[in-house]
Amino acid sequence: MTAPSRTSSDHRLPELDGIRAIAILMVLFAHAFLGFTNAPGALSEIPSPVMQIIGHGWLGVDLFFILSGFLITGILVETKSRPNYFKNFYIRRALRIMPLYFVMIAVWSLFYTDAGRYFVLSSVFAANLSDLLGVHEPHGPGVLWSLAVEEHFYLIWPLVVLLLSRRRLFTVSAAIFVAMPILRAIFAARGMHADSIYALSWFRFDGLATGAMIALWSKSSYCSRRSASIIAAGAFVVVTVMTLIGLPYGIMTGHTTSSIALRYTQTYMVFGALFVLVYALRETVWTAPLRWSVLQLTGALSYCLYLVHLSIGDAFEFLGKNQLAGLIAPLGPTAHVMLRTAVMVLISFAIALVSRRVLEEPFLSLKDRLTGRQRPAGATLPKAGAREIAG
Length: 391
Description:
The protein has 391 residues and is mainly α. It has one domain (10-371). The protein is 68% helix and 0% strand. The longest helix is centred in the C-terminal third of the chain and has 32 residues, at 333-364. The radius of gyration is 21 Å and the shape is globular. The relative contact order is 0.17.
């Protein structure tokens, strides 16, 4: 059985917005529950299985990396033979990322007044170098580290795609996937802190390379539901064997050399397997939940949600200890966490909706004009569930 026919617009598949929604919700709830100092017993009333899921929400960033690698590689492969390849790519990336990015830096600088050096770093997409350079990283704006990783990837990957055939590009992507855990293991064994390795681009490109390999598979003659099943089954077998062998060496404990080296690899193989299955089963009943309206909307708003959510939590905690202390202090510790979560979700969505309408869409509408691409007569910007969602 073959997969549904491929088009030249895989980056407009609604299932991808659904995946993006899952990624941002994982991150948002992990930060809402675990991203702040909670009072003793605050989480004890929450069922353990729920906390297990929330506790792994940090992996949502790795899902973002795979999605970005898939989308960007697909776009670059599709456009490498067109005129103004570099110009058009970087204009579209800039219009997608920079307006909201720099507005957020300007707003943050008004409230996080002790983080000037961090914002200088962030202005050149180097936020993930803050620990390496000894620069204080403020809590809410700390989310910029992952955007720095992606931007560094965007700097080199267009040239790599242009110079290599698809076969060689797949080989390079696979080599990156293998090299990254080896590099992490070497530096972890030499005493480099796990948090530094977590944020530095040259230790994290394997997630983006995973997405690149999936994009190349999706555009090849090997793309089918049968091959997707084989790839997924093989990935799950490898992850299982890797985990069993690594257990005596602390692969699941978080701060051993084996864990620092291979936990991301485990994650990318599991998410990559699921991603391949979703792509192969797109437009079917099996992937219907990813096309639900609530996930389509969440995916469309995910960029702003990611940037603002942790800062909303910071504001809640600040007000709860100062102006609103009389209202929030009497709450029990669990109620405090639940209220913080509700505030973060609701206000983040409200801000993201406004940002989408008044800031992001006007800049996105300039893409075709500035890149010389002609939009068909009568065409409008894609709606949230079917838009270009890379970046």
